[in-house]
Amino acid sequence: MSSPVWHPFTQHGLGEAIPQIASASGAWLHCADGRRLLDGISSWWVITHGHCEPRIAAAIAAQAGQLDQMIFAGYTHPQAEQLARSLVVLAPVGLDHVFFSDSGSTAVEVALKMALGHWHNRGQARHQILVLEHSYHGDTIGAMSVGARSVFNRAYEPLLFDVATVPFPAAGKEQGTLDALEALCAAPEKPAAFIVEPLVLGAGGMLAYTAEMLRAMREVCAQHDVLFIADEVMTGWGRTGTLFACEQAGITPDILCLAKGLTGGAVPLAATLASAAIFESHRSDERARMFFHSSSFTANPICCAAANANVAIWREEDVPGRIATLGAALDAGLADLAAHPRLHNGRRIGGIAAIDLRVSDAGYLSDVAPRLRAHALAAGLLLRPLGNTIYLMPPYCTTPAEIAEAVAIIDNAVDALAG
């Protein structure tokens, strides 16, 4: 009997293998048939310290027996209070308020609604959102609207709202990006906000840009009183080498989106942090000016407990040191892969390494990525290339020997592609 499960980003008509994962530990997934898979992409960019991290697992178990779920509209609980205070301390200075939700997409939706509500409550008709070329911010309607138009959202175009796009700041073209952003921010009809993925665009192909460029874009927005939204759903919690990517540019956004690694990747939780000005524009004795957003599982106590355990790990253990060790191993791996004639444009930031395959069809729907993924799966590596971009984003516990193993599998997979 076939499974009734409908999997995300999966074309079931192709009949591709769907392995069943029975357990996990560290950097490894254990299949029901006895095979092991090295998790080369942190199970879609969420696992940070490793699968089934003991401190996080213990926190989840303890909380599940004490308080599992409660309404968060007008009520609170200790785990959420502790986590919110910790996030305010850890985040760039000036983000004083925390709104919880349950995924990266909803963290972005919350940010967009905060931005629009801010201007509405101040009596200013500012509705346009500025976005960065090649960006991706999630799969709900608002999040799709501020992402690149592509096959990902073509069927849903009638639902999406219009945005203005700023060119990606590729090396040597940074000034063009700043000029375009300046022109949009200075337009007679001022935009409401500019949303960016700081330092690296994930689904866009692991496209990296400099911290100096991030800071310059923030400065343009500040000069024109345009809200700056940093989507750190992927880049947060150490992926770029620092706790948050914004740290490397020395900036504080007006709104910061967090998810994925917030709980170490164990359970779903998101947070949208906002400045006092944005909070105050919603605070009033008029009920009509409240922030109209929630979900049933807002600030779920079990998820907040997992996040508090994750925060404790960051405070008490040398996580940056682990990321540095991982980065060195990824550098060595990229050097090996760069010797392959079919690979080029190797790049690394923090615990993310990427390299591009020389192909004529580099689109998301080409057969390159599925073939590479299938070869890696057969060899014991969980890989999910983005078109012709092959990347590794493993948990921070992954050893240099495991990275070398992953690199060897990738090298063989590229050879097999030519066969």
Summarize the structure.
The chain is α/β, with parallel strands linked by helices and 419 residues long. It is 37% helix and 16% strand. The protein folds into two domains: 12-53 and 318-418, Aspartate Aminotransferase, domain 1 (Alpha-Beta Complex), CATH 3.90.1150.10; 57-316, Type I PLP-dependent aspartate aminotransferase-like (Major domain) (Aspartate Aminotransferase, domain 2, 3-Layer(aba) Sandwich).
How does this structure look, described?
Catalyzes the transfer of the alpha-amino group from S-adenosyl-L-methionine (SAM) to 7-keto-8-aminopelargonic acid (KAPA) to form 7,8-diaminopelargonic acid (DAPA). It is the only aminotransferase known to utilize SAM as an amino donor. It is an enzyme of class 2 (transferase). InterPro entries: Aminotrans_3, BioA, PyrdxlP-dep_Trfase, PyrdxlP-dep_Trfase_major, PyrdxlP-dep_Trfase_small. Its main location: cytoplasm. Substrate binds at residues 44, 136, 260, 294, 384. The protein is of the alpha/beta class. The protein has two domains: 12-53 and 318-418, Alpha-Beta Complex (Aspartate Aminotransferase, domain 1), CATH 3.90.1150.10; 57-316, Aspartate Aminotransferase, domain 2, CATH 3.40.640.10. It is 37% helix and 16% strand. The chain has a seven-stranded mixed beta sheet with strand order 4-12-11-10-7-5-6, sandwiched between helices. The longest helix is centred in the last third of the chain and has 20 residues, at 319-338. The protein is globular and about 65 Å long. The chain starts with 20 loop residues before the first strand and ends with a helix.
